[in-house]
Specification:
The complex is a heterodimer of chains A (about 180) and B (about 400). Chain A has two domains: about 100 residues, Alpha-Beta Plaits, CATH 3.30.70; about 70 residues, no CATH class. Chain A has a four-stranded antiparallel beta sheet. Chain A is elongated. In chain A, helix 1 packs parallel to helix 2 and helix 3 runs antiparallel to helix 4. Helices cover about 45% and strands about 15% of the residues of chain A. With about 180 residues, chain A is of the alpha+beta class. Chain B has 17 helices and no strands. Chain B has about 400 residues and is an all-alpha fold. Chain B has one domain. Chain B is globular. The chains are: A alpha+beta (about 180), B mainly alpha (about 400). At the A-B interface, helix 4 of A face helix 11 of B.
Chain lengths: ~180, ~400
């Protein structure tokens, strides 16, 4: 476990690239050098980058859990109301009229899954986060315009304050900046 | 054009399918003379089953013309070959028109209608001449749309006519409306009127969705076979199968939604003119088949297709799709065979008919595939995938 970083410590190194291919090349080179936790910033979604980074997300499992919870709640709520709490005979139908419970059960499943997806995504990404250290790098503005960035952060297991800049420099980036903890 | 192993393979499949089709049809002919009622019930089921990928191909091409998307370019030629079978299906409907109406539909018997006030009210719609006129009109509309799609696509492929694309798009919008309406009414005529007292407005849409589902499943299965061979191994990508898998899942859910809506409404209403239709289909030994549909037409494919990796692996997706395709027949059998409260039974013709019609369908399908580029050259160029379009 690394020590808790202080203000001014290195947050990582940020390299700027002109296109997707250069970025992908850099990701593969860094992976070959043993880096496993990197961040990439691109002006548009690039699926290959996601695959190359190899980030594992727990969100799908969370969403499935949320959906199942919603479904059980939805069905349970109706079952409780019409069988246990306030049983009432409607046209001779059974108290547990499961076909008519399905719609609400389905809606609750979707609702809980969708809410879990949105809030789980925010939570796992550490959002909302008004400021991030990479914003201090002037070139980073271009990340939403035309440039591709690769960040090797301090929490990467094989982060080395001397070797990382040398490695990134060897990939001939347009710019290379050290990012600091605020 | 050098014959490739793939081309030879397809040729062999085509000949075998044709043979199966002809032998099966001859066997059915014997069945038709020994037990005409059973023959027409089996034949109608098999006919509706193979009508699925025929009209579904047309519908999905029209849908793709409106929406675009890489998944559609990937399977477009397969769908075109599928819709080229509209005339074949028209021909296969002729025996039903000429000899089948009396065996399939009680409203065609004057003595039954005379004793039944409800049927007398419906006689303006349910009578032999109007039934025939409608059937001819449906096939005319479908043939026109399929012909227009194939012709315009060919014009675009040959001369890169943007005008042809635009025309295709404008025909597709109206064409989809026409298809959904005609197929709905065809389902009312051919399936629903077997029990003429019963009615359900969503019945036609269940057929429409089922046809889309059958088509996508068949396309995935064929594409996954083709993708094992050069040059298609370069043409089909995991993302195509991912998109197709998502579409299959959407159609599975849509099918379940439509089918369940109909069930829920009739179950809640519990009215004497509606409920018997379901009683016929969950009683008399049919319940196991109904549960099988819930499990393998919905639950299992749905749960597997929730997985992203399952949709990207064409092997897994192809198995699921083949299973759904078989279940399509099970659903149609469940819709048609119990009509009128018949107890559970499977005749040898219920097995032979889909195989015989399938043999004919597949042999004509492969005929439609061969001899023209298997991917549109223009699409291939646009997507920068292949230097030249492969021909089988």
């Amino acid at each position: 476990m690394k020590r808790r970083p202080k203000s001014g410590d290195s947050f990582g190194f940020l390299a700027e690239f002109a296109g997707t291919e250069e970025l992908l090349e850099a990701i593969h080179a860094c992976k070959a050098a043993g880096h496993t936790r990197m961040e990439a910033y691109t002006p548009m979604p690039v699926h290959e980058v996601w695959d190359a980074l190899g980030h594992k997300s727990h969100l799908p499992k969370l969403v499935l859990g949320g959906g199942i919870t919603g479904g059980i709640l939805g069905f349970g709520m109706q079952y409780f109301a019409s069988v246990i709490h306030y049983p009432i005979n409607v046209g001779g139908r059974p108290l547990n009229s499961w076909p008519s419970f399905i719609i609400i059960t389905f809606e609750m499943t979707i609702l809980f899954a969708a809410l879990t997806a949105v809030f789980g995504m925010l939570l796992l990404n550490g959002l909302p986060r008004p400021h991030h250290p990479v914003f201090d790098v002037e070139e980073f503005e271009e990340a939403s315009q035309s440039r591709f960035f690769l960040l090797v952060p301090w929490y990467d297991p094989s982060f080395d304050h001397d070797k990382v800049p040398a490695l990134l420099e060897s990939l001939s980036p347009l710019s290379l900046n050290e990012v600091h903890h605020p | 054009m050098n014959p490739t192993p793939l081309s030879e393979n397809l040729g062999r499949i085509q000949r075998t399918a044709l043979m199966v089709g002809v032998v099966g049809s001859l066997a059915l002919l014997i069945g038709a003379f020994t037990s005409a009622d059973q023959f027409f019930s089996s034949y109608m089921t098999a006919f509706l089953f193979w009508l699925g990928p025929t009209l579904g191909s047309l519908a999905i091409v029209m849908l793709h013309n409106m929406t675009g998307g890489a998944w559609g370019f990937a399977i477009r030629r397969l769908l075109e070959a599928g819709m080229r079978n509209v005339p074949l299906m028209g021909l296969l409907f002729v025996p039903i028109l000429l000899f089948g109406i009396g065996h399939l539909y009680e409203w065609s018997h004057a003595d039954v209608v005379a004793a039944d006030a409800i049927l007398q009210h419906k006689a303006a719609y349910l009578n032999r001449p109007f039934f025939t006129i409608r059937a001819v009109a449906y096939f005319a509309a479908w043939a026109f749309l399929a012909f227009a799609m194939v012709r315009l696509q060919a014009r675009y492929d040959r001369h890169l006519e943007i005008g042809a694309l635009r025309q295709m798009k404008s025909i597709s919008g109206l064409g989809l409306v026409i298809y959904v309406l005609t197929m709905s009414f065809a389902a009312f005529d051919w399936g629903m009127s077997m029990e003429p007292h019963w009615f359900s407005t969503i019945y036609g849409l269940i057929f429409v969705v089922g046809q889309g589902l059958a088509t996508l499943c068949l396309a995935v299965v064929v594409a996954s076979r083709l993708a094992r061979h050069e040059p298609f191994s370069r043409w089909f990508e995991p993302r195509h199968f991912h998109d197709l898998g998502n579409l299959v899942m959407a159609f599975v859910m849509l099918w379940a939604y439509m089918s369940f809506s109909q069930f829920l409404i009739i179950w809640s209403g519990n009215l004497p003119e509606e409920a018997p239709w379901y009683l016929h289909r969950i009683g008399h030994g049919w319940q196991a088949l109904a549960l099988l549909l819930v499990a393998f037409h919905f639950a299992v494919p749905f749960l597997v297709l929730l997985n992203r990796p399952a949709k990207r692996k064409m092997g897994v997706l192809a198995v699921i799709c083949a299973g759904i395709f078989v279940m399509r027949y099970a659903e149609l059998f469940w819709l048609i065979a119990p009509a009128g409260g018949a107890p559970f039974h499977i005749s040898w013709m219920d097995v032979v008919a889909p195989i015989a019609l399938g043999g004919l369908w597949i042999s004509f399908f492969i005929r439609g595939l061969r001899g023209r580029p298997l991917v549109s050259l223009q699409d291939a160029k646009l997507l920068g995938k292949l230097e030249e379009a492969p021909i089988l």
